[in-house]
Design brief:
The structure holds two protein chains of two kinds. Helices cover 71% and strands 1% of the residues of chain A. By secondary structure, chain A is mainly alpha-helical. In chain A, strands 1-2 form a two-stranded antiparallel sheet. By secondary structure, chain B is mostly helical. Chain B has a domain at 67-231 and 247-273: MetI-like (MetI-like fold, Orthogonal Bundle), CATH 1.10.3720.10. Chain B has helices spanning 5-33, 55-63, 66-97, 103-115, 118-131, 138-163, 166-174, 179-190, 192-208, 211-216, 225-235, 241-273. The longest helix of chain B is centred in the last third of the chain and has 33 residues, at 241-273. Chain B is globular, with a radius of gyration of 23 Å. The two termini of chain B are 36 Å apart. Classes of the chains: A mainly alpha, B mainly alpha.
């Protein structure tokens, strides 16, 4: 019934195929509203608790509102502040730094490790895969508690430094204006490296061995082999890894909340934490919404740009 | 292969070093949790059982009030996983096996939800739910997470239903089975691997979720386990042993599920990541 508007001038086999498909999808006696009935419960929850709130966030971001009294319409002022307010610029800048630690560093380490294991065909990779994936499944709060202890002034890291004669370097890492952000970032590196490595290993295992055979006949060494064959073959996996890890960096919240609360000063403030702080601690709901919407747009753009770049290079 | 013994050995060293690096923070926590209690206020402990102190977990459970927090987490996770799975199976069935007007537009609408960060929905949700008196309720914590899980679940189950055997469905329909019976009596039982993966992933995400309960739960009985741990960390400053024990308590259910169903977790995370 829904499909009668389609042109009927198709050639024989095609039409037969369509007719056959139609019969599988719409058996006689199945009413046209049936698909919508199956969709309705999921869509209702999704619309009320996800779609509508996103639109509401966009709406709230146009107001100056403390969450209690009547708000005032301010147009795009809150978005202008995202660019001009030093505190917000700092937060987005920190997110960019975190991206290096969450995405770039794990990608480099992951490529190196995956290439090594791919070449040598070592045993026990299944067990290894399970082990390095553990940081992905444990709650970020648990991870943060563990690393807070490691970074503590009298914690394992400083004790280890003192033991190997680098006692001069010891400090309260998370309370240090210079080192707090890299310290938080390295936790991200720890969390993401396993995922990236496993992803790349899966990609490399799909490369046909013949490719390497011919390269070796041409006398290519391990390094040339990597750049000529392995790297181009895992472009798709690199794209996925970058998308996942960049977005994880941009969404950092639990880790900062538990380890530093954005401090010292605003040395580790990040967009997500600014959203929380502005909306629920200092009563700047409109500004919080603007930061949240900006963050959402950035995440969409990252998805789009990274995927596009990956597609173009493979094409 | 022209891989020398030396290179092979070096590879095993790198493999072990990296595995150790991945486990080290978690092992640190585990070792400290069963070590002697370091808080000055604690009563004198004996040498313990084989030098271990499993009583730390009991103390942490009581001092950190993890009982109610674990209960809240179990309740929220059970509800979110069950509801989201059933709704996703139904919506995935529609998208994967039926044709209807607006199909693509609706599907892309669900896909958008995969990218929306929690930060963007939690602010308006808090103030809107407050105006109808629903903040600080079970529903305020659970339903937004059902919505997020349904976005992924629809995408995941659609992929399964698209590959499901049409011949089998056809045969069942010729036998007079309606679409509802075909779904629950044929496709769902066959699709167990895909559904188990979805259930496991949804459980992990829900159990570990932090921001939504942080914003929505003010009364203590609604605080989920990660939230309980974060609060315990803020209040308990006399030592680290009980905090470590608390961290182990919060991580334990997820680790057990992971150890039993790791294939599902890894496969799901890798495949779910590779959209379309």
């Amino acid at each position: 019934m829904l499909r009668t508007a389609e042109p009927t001038t198709r050639t024989g086999p095609d039409r037969l195929a369509r007719a056959a498909r139609r019969s599988t999808h719409r058996p006689p006696g199945q009413p046209g509203w049936l698909p919508y009935a199956y969709l309705l419960p999921a869509f209702a929850v999704y619309a009320v608790f996800l779609l509508y709130p996103v639109l509401r966030a966009a709406n709230l971001s146009l107001y100056e509102w403390d969450g209690l009294t009547l708000g005032t319409y301010v147009g795009l002022d809150n978005y202008v502040a995202v660019v001009t307010d030093p505190a917000l610029r700092a937060a987005f800048g920190h997110a960019l730094v975190l991206t290096l630690f969450y995405a770039v560093l794990p990608l480099l380490i992951g490529l190196l490790l995956a290439a090594i294991f791919h070449r040598a065909k070592v045993r026990g990779l299944g067990f290894f895969r399970s082990v390095v994936f553990v940081p992905q499944v444990v709650a970020m709060v648990v991870v943060a508690v563990a690393w807070r202890h490691i970074y503590a002034p009298d914690g394992p890291l400083n004790r280890a430094l003192a033991t190997i004669g680098l006692g001069g370097l010891t400090r309260g890492w998370l309370g240090d204006y210079t080192f707090a952000l890299p310290a938080v970032g390295l936790v991200g590196t720890w969390v993401e490296t396993g995922l990236v490595t496993v992803l790349l290993m899966a990609g490399m295992s799909r490369i046909p061995p013949e490719l390497y055979e011919s390269a070796r006949l041409d006398g290519a060494g391990a390094v040339r082999e990597f750049f000529a064959i392995t790297l181009p073959a895992v472009r798709g996996e690199i794209t996925v890894a970058l998308t996942l890890t960049i977005i994880a960096a941009l969404k950092t919240f639990d880790l900062v909340y538990v380890t530093t609360r954005g401090g010292p000063g605003d040395a580790t403030s990040v967009p997500s934490y600014e959203v929380y702080r502005r909306a629920f601690m200092i009563g700047e709901v409109g500004s919080a919404a603007a930061v949240a919407v900006t963050l959402t747009v950035v995440i969409f753009l990252v998805n789009l740009v990274v995927t596009r770049l990956g597609d173009r290079e493979t094409a | 292969m022209r891989i020398s013994r030396g290179e092979r050995l070096a590879n095993y060293v790198i493999l072990c070093a990296f595995a150790l690096f991945a486990l080290w923070p978690i092992l640190t926590i585990l070792v400290l949790a069963v070590g002697p209690d370091d808080s000055a206020a604690s009563p004198e402990q004996g040498t313990g059982f084989l030098g271990l102190h499993p009583e730390n977990f009991v103390n942490a459970w009581n001092v950190g009030r993890f009982g109610p927090a674990m209960l809240a987490s179990v309740a929220v996770s059970t509800f979110v996983v069950t509801t989201a799975t059933v709704l996703s199976i139904m919506s995935g069935y529609a998208f994967g096996t039926m044709r209807f007007r607006g199909q693509n537009a609706l599907f892309y609408t669900f896909l958008v939800g995969l990218m929306v960060p929690t930060e963007a929905i939690v602010v308006p949700l808090y103030f809107d739910l407050r105006s109808v008196g629903l903040t600080d309720t079970f529903w305020a914590i659970a339903l937004p997470q059902v919505a997020q899980s349904v976005a992924f679940g629809t995408f995941w189950m659609r992929a399964y239903f698209r590959t499901s055997s049409l011949a089998l469905v056809e045969a069942a329909r010729l036998d007079g089975a309606g679409s509802w019976r075909v779904l629950w009596l044929i496709l769902v039982p066959i699709g167990r691997p895909a559904i188990v993966t979805l259930v496991v992933l949804t459980f992990l995400w829900t159990w570990n979720e932090f921001l939504i309960p942080l914003v929505m739960a003010t009364s203590e009985h609604l605080r989920t386990a990660p939230l309980g741990l974060a609060f315990f960390q803020g209040q308990y400053t006399t030592g680290f042993t009980l905090l470590a024990a608390g961290a182990v308590i919060v991580a334990a259910p997820v680790l057990v599920v992971y150890i039993v169903l790791q294939r599902h977790v890894i496969r799901g995370m890798l495949e779910g990541a590779v959209r379309e």
